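Hey,
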Amino acid sequence: MHDPEVLLLDEPYQGFDWETYLRFWDIARSLCERGRAVVVVSHLAHDRERLDVLHRLRNGVLEVEHGAGAGGGA
């Protein structure tokens, strides 16, 4: 597979079992550690601590939250 600078994923973990879900985040973290950007589009944001930035559309207004992952975390 190619090695893109930015990986855009729409609902990537929909239907995953728990082990596959955790593996997804391991792979995403590995990509980020290699300098890649992983953009996840989802209506679920349960694991905010895994995110650098969360953009949330609420009542037509875009809100930005900086997660615990910011600055080299998950």
